[in-house]
Amino acid sequence: MTAQEYAFAVIAAVGSISAIAVVTARNVVHAALYLVVALLSVGATFLLLGAEFAGWVQILIYVGAIVILFLFGLMLTKAPIGRDTLDNTHRWVGLLVAAGVFAGLAFLIQDAFPLDAEPFEVFHGSTSVVGESMFRDFVLPFEAISFLLLAALIGAIVLARKDEGN
Amino acid sequence: MPDYYSSYGVVLAVVAAGAILVAVAFTAAKLIAPHRPLPAKLTTYECGIDPVGEGWSQSQIRYYVFGFLFVIFDVEAVFLFPWARVFESLGWAAVVEMGIFIAILATGLLYAWRKGVVRWA
Predict the structure, then answer these.
(1) B61 interfaces chain A, CB cutoff of 8 Å
(2) Distance CA A86, CA B106 (A)
(3) Chain-wide mean pLDDT for chain A?
(4) Residue B35 burial (10 A CB sphere; 0-12, 13-18, 19+)
(5) Residue A161 has pLDDT above 80, yes or no
(6) What is the mean pLDDT of residues A145-159?
(7) Are residues A35 and A67 in the same domain?
(8) Domain range holding A132?
(9) Cβ pairs bridging A and B (under 8 Å)
């Protein structure tokens, strides 16, 4: 095994354990903090694959911003903390869906990248390559993103704002 | 590619050094500090005032909008990095593209401002 494979084994183990901890944690805030570790290990996997931009975006956006929203969302609710209040009766449905997703992904990945396939060169997806394709070939989708963000922002304000007339 | 991985080796070394620093500091504090707990010492510190209520309390929804504004502009900032890399080769086209992007998002900020979301009353 190469050093890269050892590093991947460590990152994958940390990510898997923390992902299991997210769903088994008794405290929702602890679950959110385990989610940080899981998302960090996804970012580390991107970095290991040479996708530097995607890796740091994963860490900046998901760890830095999305988890903040999760924590604010938790603080908004009168979160009941404890085993009984967190558990629900959909356990078996959840297990079924998770098993189905796992089987589907495992089949697709095995189909696309069989174990006996030639290992391919790690492509260093540098930030300028991403920028080149984003700002030369995909300008319109890029501008559409700003509309998506604008719609989300206005929606959040409409929901959260206290009407001054009332 | 070896350059790429060795540069992240430095990052890893810094992270390890930070973890060791924290671990050593906490272990030293645990070994050296005298441990004589009193009920008063074990209460949560709240600026010297006796703590009121539970550790968990519901926060106002306006904090969520601040969090959301942060997320929106965090996403915007991420797009500035690849833009800065190709800025020179694309020239004015890149300026216009990013200008439109930021102008649309600034409309959202203007909306938030007009609705009094960013005013702390």
Answers:
(1) yes
(2) 40
(3) 84
(4) exposed
(5) no
(6) 88
(7) yes
(8) 126-166
(9) 131
Residue of A nearest to B92 (CA): A135
Q: Same structural domain for residues A103 and A133?
A: no
CA distance B26 to chain A (A): 21
Which domains, ranges and CATH numbers included, belong to chain B? 2-114 (1.20.58.1610)
- Chain A contact for B74 (CB, 8 A cutoff): yes
Asked whether the beta carbons of A139 and B98 are under 8 A apart, the reply is: no
> Residue A79: which CATH number?
1.20.120.1200
Q: How many domains does chain A have?
A: 2
Tell me, yes or no, if A95 comes closer than 8 A to chain B by beta carbon.
no
A50 to chain B: which residues are within 8 Å by CB?
A: 1, 4
Task: Check residue A71 and give its pLDDT.
Answer: 85
Asked if B99 reaches chain A (Cβ–Cβ under 8 Å), the answer is no
Total residues belonging to chain B: 121
Provide long-range contacts, Cβ within 8 A and 24+ apart, for A38-45. Answer: A39/A63, A39/A66, A39/A67, A41/A11, A41/A12, A41/A14, A41/A15, A42/A15, A44/A11, A45/A8, A45/A11, A45/A12, A45/A15
Asked whether residue A19 falls in the same domain as residue A68, the answer is yes
Nearest to A153 among B72, B89, B101 (CB): B72
**Choice among A59-63, A97-101, B21-25 with the minimum mean pLDDT:** A59-63
pLDDT at site A40: 94
> pLDDT digit string (tens) for A44-61?
999 888 888 889 899 999
